[in-house]
Amino acid sequence: MSDDAAWDQLAGRYDTIVRLFDRSYPAVREALARDLDGRRRVLELASGTGQFTAALASAADSLVATDISWEMVQRLRGAVKARGLDHVSVRRMSAYEIDADDRSFDAVVCANALHVMKRPHDALVEMRRVVSANGIVATPTFLHGASAATRLLSRALSAFSPFVAHTRFDLPRLISLLRNADLEVIHSETFPGLFPIGYVVARRAS
What we know:
Elements: H1 3-18, H2 25-35, E1 41-45, H3 53-59, E2 62-67, H4 70-82, E3 88-92, E4 105-110, H5 120-130, E5 131-138, E6 141-142, H6 148-160, H7 171-180, E7 183-191, E8 197-204
Parallel strand pairs: 1-2, 1-4, 2-3, 4-5
Antiparallel strand pairs: 5-8, 6-8, 7-8
Helix pairs in contact: 1-4, 2-3
């Protein structure tokens, strides 16, 4: 099954399922709003049904929110319309092939998606391409490899649910992935949860 088809099937249950893992979502939203303050044009990748979209919209003059799944995009459009977020446009897009010019965004955000991507390095290379010289890339990511307990839980989820972690990151491994995509990490921290969230902010390496 393709990635978009798998997420299409999950779209109707997605909001319910993520509540199991959203302990630190309010703190992540606050961090994103803080770090995006003053960033005029923002791209959100793998937006899902919009767990972080409103927080990004509160900080940006213009936000393009995207997902690879048509079903997620339709639900996201409904949520954006319901909130009256007129400066947010919603598009179907793959993180591996971002439909945007080089250096066209002041910030790129990809929240809780790198671990479920088969090619996270390729996605980060694309993020680096479209972020401006003084822009930032923010990648809050579930750390399935943070401990023996999270690795065990991750293996169980991958075996018995549609949520397959292709990479079980701990924070150093996540930081290394960004550096290998020619991104300079300028901030990192960890938020607690059933799976902790590694919050990493980077910019184009000089």
